[in-house]
Amino acid sequence: MLLFSMGIAGSFSLGGLIANEISPVSLNAVRFALASIVVGVAVFSLGMVQKKHAAAPWRYLLTGTLMSIYFVLMFEGLKTATAVSTSAVFTLAPLISACFGWIFLRQVTTPRMAIALAIAACGALWVIFRADWSDLLAFNVGQGESIFFFGCIAHAVYTPLVRKLNRGEPPAVFVLGTLIAGTLILGIYGWNEVRDTDWAELPIIVWVTLFYVALVASAFTFVAINFATLRLPSAKVMAYTYLTPTWVIAWEWALGQDLPRPAVLVGVGLTVLALLVLLKDDGHLPRKT
User: Whole-structure pTM over 0.85, yes or no?
Assistant: First the structure.
């Protein structure tokens, strides 16, 4: 999950650079297709796929839809929001995921988890409102942050749902089903946008981002989150997203982008504190068999 948060962070920073260069639907339809090929080659070459894994394909359509919504709304949000503030919105996902974890799995949030979620939520709000008390009191949320928040709800539902729907499939196999479903959903829904995109004229940074989000922010992170979801409570899995704003700031610095002012960094510090609190949690769920 540490590697997951680092990989996700890169998609925020790179996504912010190309959000207005290509349709979010076109970008994600192709990224899902590329990720499907990469994961597919891996799982078939390793002999991981069995006939029984194709049972109840509606499961993959459901998870594929949720992840399609998340990624499309992420790039829509990045059109007007900064990478740091958008990643801060993402840190609200564990709080939402804890609610759905109880609904789907009856996972109970421990007192320590609740404290961590509260600390992280405060830190996220401080970053989202740019350390401005007047914006916070007026609840003046930017358009991009508002759009991405609904994407985060889809991601928060996905996390416990994977554990609910998994029937013993290895994480990589379940991810392959999700990626193929996402490719079909976005391919059908956004066919006109994909067809009308002038792929030959896209800037090189778009192609760099496309391959990054396909190989790292899709293939790798999907496997990572599925692996962790089968071994940890949903809220704890998503809690590692608390590190995402910190990684994003590192990415922004590496890419030569403007960094947030010092007052905003207080909120980022709170999200890191929340993770440290959660790492000392009272325990975790036994591995699913």
Answer: no
CB count in 10 Å sphere of residue 102: 15
How far is Cα 129 from Cα 209, in angstroms, rounded to an integer? 27
When mean pLDDT is compared over 92-96, 135-139, 250-254, 255-259, the highest value belongs to 250-254
Most confident range (mean pLDDT) of 196-205, 229-238, 250-259, 278-287 is: 196-205
Instruction: Specify the pLDDT at position 8.
Output: 85
Sequence-ordered list of residues with C-beta below 8 angstroms from that of 289, at least 6 positions apart, any chain: none
CA angle 134, 19, 100 (to 5 degrees): 65
Predicted local confidence at residue 117, as pLDDT? 79
Q: How many CA atoms lie within 13 A of 107 on its CB side?
A: 31
